[in-house]
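Let's practice the habit of predicting before peeking. Look at the sequence and jot down your guess about where helices and strands might fall. Then scroll down.
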Amino acid sequence: MKGMNKVKLYKSVKEPEIYHYFNSNKEKLWMFRHKYYDAAGKRKEKKKSGFKTEKAALKALLEVKAATLRGETKHIEHDNLTVAQWLDLWFDMNKGKWKPATVTQREGFIKLYFKPLLGSYKLQKLDRVIYQTAFINALEDKLKPSTIRALHSIFRIAMNAAVAEEIIIRNKLHGAALPSLRDKETEKNYLTPGQLSILLNHIKQHGDIAYYSLFLTIAYTGIRKGEALGLQWRNIDFASQTITIERTRGNNGVGSTKTKNSERTIKVDNIVLQQLQSYQTAVKALLLSHGRRLQSDLTKDDSFIFLSPHTAEPFVSTGLNAIFNRFVESAGLPATTIHGLRHTHATILMNNSIPVKAIAERLGNTPEMIHTVYGHVLQEMEAQTVSVFSESLKAFGAKSGASS
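Done guessing? Here is the structure:
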């Protein structure tokens, strides 16, 4: 629209708000100019140029008129808003409402992924095809499926906020094909019961009691690393043999659990409880060497359980990854992550025929998520049930069934 004030406009005989003009190359182009009142009753004008035909300009004008009649004036006023500009607006509007960890996470997502890949697109023109090719597909060879899904979840929130603000009519990203969690992460990222036993014994022999206690707790409960790091002594009920998960802790600080389902109290066995009691004795000695101590009433002690043996401060999340990897490698086991201990816990329960609903409640997931993430294990179990049934009948000499 720059320079349009210097261009002579010729009104259309078909529609008084349609004009044609000639650009610097003597090319005949079309435009519209539509006057309307916004939601506040203020007189405004919407104009757009560069149409190749009168028909195209008329179609665009009719769409604008229909939108104003529906009261969708914000949609009209922001039709040139880019994804990057909207993300800045969305972030500024909400950062005061979000938790510090959420602010840090979303600011990083916007800077590292959303703006570089999608920022230049017009918000109202962004559809599922563009999103799939320019964002999801572009990240598949660079990031883990779970990370891509997390990015998608946050970007959907930003798009839904644009719908709520009436800047876009609807969120067009529904139906985007996301990478499977099962194929790339879960199938290889778990240990057999025998391998888990080897790993824990290796850590016990060659590592500090803090590492052994942490990794044993994760393996025997299936809780997430952040949930384990967020545990406080008051969350352990030795009498009832339970652990309550009510927060998570990571590099961005302390926050709420991943989902509402993740807030839970789970039963634990004596192996975990006895190890935590032994570790508690070690923690008391460690804190005392740094001039600190636990409260006499542990039900009121809100200090974090798992502390670095070097600093007596809560473990740093990322630093644990390298330590765990060294334990796995030195034990001669296949590459596995700390999160693989959670997958190991789940697969062992499944292979022992524990109901999916019970596993979901223990892990802080939904049954649907268990089917998504551990579908390959469930399929293997289903295949086994076929042979188990027939083998059971054979044991009693049954001769029924198809004959040749």
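How did you do? Residues 4-77 form one domain.
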